[in-house]
Specification:
Helix content is 26%, strand content 30%. It has 530 residues and is α+β, with helices and mostly antiparallel strands. Helix 4 packs parallel to helix 5 and helix 10 packs across helix 11. The structure holds guanosine-5',3'-tetraphosphate (G4P). Guanosine-5',3'-tetraphosphate binds next to helix 2.
């Protein structure tokens, strides 16, 4: 790249999070339309038409009509190069969803205006908070009857524990939706139906003091707006860029992705309020994105994107420098130099090969089975490792057994590889070996994925017996805790992970407190660093 610094400065890498059906796909699609990356709405992922343009990699996706894996889309807009990390919104989502957030520099949270904060949003939100990344809220579907605006904001503040700061304010909703009022410019942007975004919308800007506003929105709506603005000035948090950057204040926007209203305004503000890729922490200190040396970390491994080959793609986030196809880099965990061949990048509707990429970008590399989640690659002379990616707590457990015990070898190989990719976590009885395996997953769909993949890729049939456990806690201080003497409850089970680390699984939260009470000095944690 001719001017690496400029290229990196152009980058904005964010994840979109939402509860299923809030409108994440529709919003993404509209972003891509602005970027000219697609010509026609409907080509990102049409659920009804089963067009899984980007991640059509497994039968199970087609059968269920959902997207199992997260994908990455890149487009250019107004001088910026934007990477959107999509996260599966289905309730059966997996650890991948969480890990994707580790690769993002900020997050956009899409909320359905008639529903407010929903379960999925809450879960993903916790990870954003853990990372202290900026969170932007887009309250969608204003063209439908919406909840009271103040209530929606209260809901976010109470449910997610983050202060909100509306950047614009809706005028009515549903059939009565008239547009949004921009609090800073003091202008109303009027809404016109774009027939599901197929027509150019006429977004007229009218000053709040302009008498013409009365014709546009009517006396009643105008009076209500003035009342609400007054209330807001007394109660709402003020915009503060520093708090936004720290992830403590979420700028809120209102709009309707389907009718393409408020989307471009949102995008413009978002780009102004976010920064170019930031440095990341390693064991040798912060790694500056503008450093000449290339470095990246693996945050996701996806198997079998091509059904005819049993290949894996390791997705990595470039942290610093520039990537060139065919270059060599040191794989820190593997302890050797490797050639980075076959790079891939996701575009709106295809997978394409990339020659060059830089800090902020996501690339997918062909993986012959050498990478694990969290691995570091770098060309720097002084080697370092990026901070590990946490293992997220599985919430569903099942005992996994073989139907044909002659297939033990393939079974162990298959289940270990799938666990290495991070799609599932495997545990053993505290005193047991590989003969009995307990599988833990973040979303129950992963059980089906496991069964399907063991059968189709390793020719192994398994039986899964659901276990009632829902909570997992790693032992933070294993060196001072004697596992044999640990006093448990009847709702608890001792297990160990593949690194032989002891942990406990519980049926209910109450038991966790009980065990802590009964064992002085015991410390438990929900996430484990790899
Ligand atoms: P998701 O990715 O978050 O799961 O949501 P998606 O964009 O697929 O949207 C879910 C449904 O909500 C879709 O309708 C979509 O058209 C609709 N939708 C999205 N944004 C808006 C909006 O601003 N206003 C209104 N009224 N509807 C919106 P569907 O009938 O489930 O699917 P489709 O057949 O229309 O694709």
């Amino acid at each position: 790249m001719s001017n690496l610094k400029q290229e990196i400065e152009k980058r904005r890498t964010f994840a979109i999070i939402s509860h299923p059906d809030a409108g994440k796909t529709t919003l993404t699609e509209k972003f891509l339309l602005y970027g000219g990356a697609i010509n026609q709405a409907g080509s990102v992922k049409g659920k009804a038409t089963a067009k899984h343009a980007v991640s059509d990699w497994m039968e199970i996706e087609k059968q269920r009509g959902i997207s199992v894996t997260s994908s990455v889309l890149q487009f250019n807009y107004d001088g910026y190069c934007i990477n959107i990390l999509d996260t599966p919104g289905h309730q059966d989502f997996s650890e991948d969803t969480y890990r994707t957030l580790m690769a993002a520099d900020s997050a956009v949270m899409v909320i359905d205006a008639s529903k407010g904060v929903e379960a999925q949003t809450r879960k993903l939100f916790k990870v954003c908070v853990m990372r202290h990344i900026p969170i932007f809220t887009f309250i969608n579907k204003m063209d439908r009857d919406a909840n009271d605006t103040f209530e929606l904001l209260d809901d976010i503040e109470n449910e997610l524990g983050i202060a909100t700061c509306p950047i614009n304010w809706p005028i009515g909703s549903g059939k009565e939706f008239k547009g949004v009022y921009d609090l800073k410019s003091k202008q109303v942007m009027t809404f016109s139906d774009t027939r599901k975004g197929t027509q150019e919308g006429q977004e007229t800007l009218i000053s709040i003091d302009d008498p013409a506003l009365l014709d546009e929105i009517g006396e009643e709506k105008r009076a209500q707006l003035l009342d609400e603005i007054e209330l807001l000035e007394g109660a709402g948090a003020e915009f503060d860029q520093e708090l936004v950057t720290k992830g403590e204040l979420s700028p809120v926007f209102f709009g309707s992705a389907l009718t393409n209203f408020g989307v471009e305004t949102f995008l413009r503000h978002f780009l102004q309020m976010t920064y170019a890729p930031l440095s990341r922490t390693s064991d040798k200190g912060e790694i500056n994105p503008f450093s000449e040396d290339f470095s990246a970390f693996v945050f996701k491994i996806q198997a079998n994107m091509n059904k005819n080959h049993r290949d894996r793609i390791a997705f990595m986030r470039i942290v610093s420098g520039e990537f060139e196809a065919g270059m060599e880099a040191y794989h820190v965990q593997g302890g050797k130099n490797i050639k980075l061949a076959q790079p891939q990048q996701m575009m709106a509707d295809e997978r394409k090969m990339v020659d060059r990429a830089c800090a902020g970008d996501i690339i997918g590399l062909f993986d012959p089975g050498i990478f694990s989640i969290g691995d570091t690659l770098t060309t720097a002379k002084e080697k370092f490792c990026f901070e590990g990616i946490p293992t997220f707590a599985p919430e569903h457990f099942a005992r996994c057994s073989l139907v044909d015990s002659m297939k033990r070898k393939q079974f162990v190989k298959g289940i270990t590889q799938i666990a290495q990719e991070g799609a599932i976590q495997i545990f053993q009885e505290y005193k047991g070996g590989m003969e009995e395996i307990i599988v833990g997953v973040v979303g129950v769909l992963q059980f089906d994925v496991l069964k399907f993949r063991l059968q189709s890729e390793y020719n192994v049939e398994i039986r899964l017996e659901n276990l009632p456990y829902e909570y997992i806690r790693w032992i933070k201080n294993p060196e001072t805790v004697d596992m044999d003497r640990l006093v448990g409850t009847s709702d608890m089970k001792k297990v160990k992970d593949m690194k032989d680390r002891p942990l406990l699984i519980f049926i209910n939260e109450w038991s966790i407190g009980m065990v802590l009470d009964r064992n002085e000095g015991l410390e438990l944690e929900e996430f484990s660093r790899n």
